Amino acid sequence: MSGAPDGTGYAVVLDAPGRHRLAPHEPAPPGPGEALVRVHASGICGSDREVYQGNRPEGYVRYPLTPGHEWSGTVAAVGTGVPPELVGRKVVGEGFRNCQVCDRCHAGETTLCTAGYDETGFTLPGAMAPTLTLPARLLHPLPDDVDLTAAALLEPAACVAAATLVGAPRPGERVAVIGAGTLGLIAVQLLAASSPAELYVVEPRPERAALAREFGATAVTGPEDLAGSGCAQGCDLVLEAAGAAGSARAATSFARRGGRVVLTGIPAPGALGLDPASLVTDRLTLHTVFGAPPAAWSHAVRAFAAGLLDLAPLVTHELALTEFPRAIELVGSGDPKVGKVLLRP
After folding, report:
1. E strand or H helix at 90, and its extent?
2. N or C: which end of the chain has fewer CB atoms below 10 A?
3. Higher model confidence: residue 268 or residue 161?
């Protein structure tokens, strides 16, 4: 089953946790200020698996739902008030639907909009369908010659861009990345572009370690070995991208006194807590990231368009929408050979 030229076809619908079906899809005509996008590919991440399993926190999902917050596509039509030249452009798009008028939105922190949480693929229809209709102001146009399959990873890249922007890496610093999954490997590339003196990656899986080195890591170690490496005196910046039970605490232990730590992963309940005394006595600056504001999206799209982000090697599986259950299983398998899984309408 695939999308027809007119945008009809089938979409994945989750009626409730653990219950999905393929439902007939009709494109939603774009209203004023909106754009209709023909979806090229939609990625699956741990958050999608949470939605399927019912582990997403209350208020951050609404069933029935078509998931899909990581996507790329081409604008097929626009509503009134949208520049007509946008039709035919390759695009990616922000997921958070913000009010644009609250104090947080005015400050550029749109993922903290005080009007409440709404996001494509979680509370609003997502991209696991032939088409997606959304406010055109959320779109980020891409160069005509980009690889749309690789571009489907720009949503996680934008989240990592948010982390690197608040981490503010400086040339010549010692930096470390905890975890070499999709987020970690994107972080390695963005941090490598800041010309660090050393770029350490903590990752026990050989396949992922090899990619980290290819993307610019100067050393890849296991958690127990980092303290004995060149980062024994502590790193200036540590970016945590694993979301494991102990990765946040590990990230703070690898930072030098006065260093900076950015947490991006969301661990399951029961994770090891941070030590407030160490945070204070070591005078660590701690940042967290939830989603990506417009500035981070722009940063990721510019880096991708400039060739500083190589996202294609992170894609290991491309499946049809009909294979949604297998895609969810792959994402949760723990197999180190499974990277980013994409669904194609």
Report:
1. strand 90-93
2. N
3. 161
* Chain position carrying tokens 């980062």: 231
**Nearest-angstrom CA–CA distance, 330 and 345:** 18
CA separation for the pair 247, 266 (Å, rounded): 10
The sign of the torsion formed by the CA atoms of 234, 162, 110, 64 equals negative
Contacts of 125 (CB under 8 A, 6+ apart): 11, 28, 65, 66, 132, 133
- Tokens 């010309």 found at: 195
pTM: 0.93
Helices (H), 178-232: 182-192, 206-214
| 103: number of Cβ within 10 Å | 10
34 has pLDDT over 70: yes
Cα atoms found within 13 Å of the Cα of residue 287, Cβ hemisphere only = 18
Please give the backbone phi and psi of residue 78, each rounded to the nearest 5 degrees, phi first.
Answer: -135, 155
3-state secondary structure of 276: helix
Phi–psi pair at 46, nearest 5 degrees: -60, -30
Per DSSP (E only), the strands in 112-204 are: 131-135, 139-141, 174-178, 198-202
Q: How confident is the model at residue 228 (pLDDT cuts 50, 70, 90)?
A: low
- CA–CA separation, 256 and 232 (whole Å): 9
User: Three-state DSSP class for 117?
Assistant: coil
192 CB-near residues (< 8 Å, 6+ apart): 199, 215, 216, 217
Domains of the chain plus CATH, in order, are 9-153+311-344 (3.90.180.10), 158-288 (3.40.50.720)
pLDDT digits (tens, 9 = 90+) for 316-345: 999 999 999 999 999 988 888 899 999 999
Residue range 272-294, pLDDT digits in tens:
888 889 899 999 999 999 999 99
To the nearest whole number, what is the mean pLDDT of the chain?
A: 92
Q: How confident is the model at residue 1 (pLDDT cuts 50, 70, 90)?
A: very low
